[in-house]
Design brief:
It is a multi-pass membrane protein. The chain has about 230 residues and is mainly α. The protein contains seven helices and no strands. It has one domain. The protein is about 85% helix and about 0% strand. The longest helix is centred in the last third of the chain and has 60 residues.
Length: about 230
């Protein structure tokens, strides 16, 4: 460990209890936000790949009943576009068997079912994004609070001496500024992560919306053809 690291660690160790508490909060917030970002990266990557695979199978021109059977027979819990498709096809098939049910009503019932699953999937994908936004927006202010408190303590200590020198005030100001730096260190990655993953969720939402409308059009054509 070099001398710069030693001096920074020494400043943190000698900081007031409140400033140390602020630094601890910022470190925990940073660690938690990175954990959320790694988890969100994996989740959205899997969701995008799954949507691509399903779209390829859906638009391959095969029998929808056979595709529905393949999807529902999988042991895995259905998520994303597969879950939307399963809900819509199941509701459409059940709707056609109801007495007095028109094709338009069956399609509309399928659309409602898909919208419900669609909202559930988007809510799942957006999970913890609000935490990243909170860390990104509040961490600089938490760090600034620690800075203000540390500088205030330094100037209060200066009032108790006859002659103030730079060497007397510099350590207190330095330890206070570390809190600001830690606040930015926690906030910047969280803001970048939030913007990146919110954009990915938004693009998936558009893909889901498009699929719902296109699938409803196919169901309506099939219903009227029958």
């Amino acid at each position: 460990m070099n001398n710069g690291d030693m001096s920074i660690l020494a400043l943190i160790a000698e900081a007031s209890l409140l400033v140390q508490l602020v630094m601890l909060i910022l470190v925990l917030a940073s660690v938690a936000s990175w954990a959320v970002m790694f988890r969100k990266h994996q989740m959205l990557k899997e969701a995008e790949e799954a949507a691509g695979r399903f779209e390829e199978a859906f638009w391959a021109g095969g029998d929808l009943s056979e595709l529905y059977r393949e999807v529902t027979e999988r042991p895995d819990y259905l998520e994303g576009m597969e879950a939307i498709f399963e809900a819509g096809f199941a509701e459409f098939a059940a709707g056609r068997g109801r007495p007095g049910q028109t094709p338009s009503n069956a399609v509309e019932s399928a659309r409602r079912s898909m919208r419900i699953v669609h909202m559930r999937e988007i809510d799942r994908l957006e999970d913890n994004l609000a935490f990243l936004a909170t860390v990104g927006s509040t961490s600089p202010y938490i760090g600034l609070f620690g800075t203000v408190w540390g500088i205030m303590n330094s100037f209060r200590a200066l009032g108790q001496v006859q002659q103030a020198t730079l060497s007397m005030v510099a350590p207190g100001i330095a330890e206070a500024l570390i809190a600001t730096a830690m606040g930015l260190f926690a906030a910047i990655p969280a803001v970048i992560g939030y913007n990146r993953y919110a954009n990915k969720v938004e693009r998936l939402e558009v893909r889901f919306d498009t699929f719902v409308e296109e699938f409803c059009s196919i169901l309506e054509r099939n219903a009227h053809a029958e």
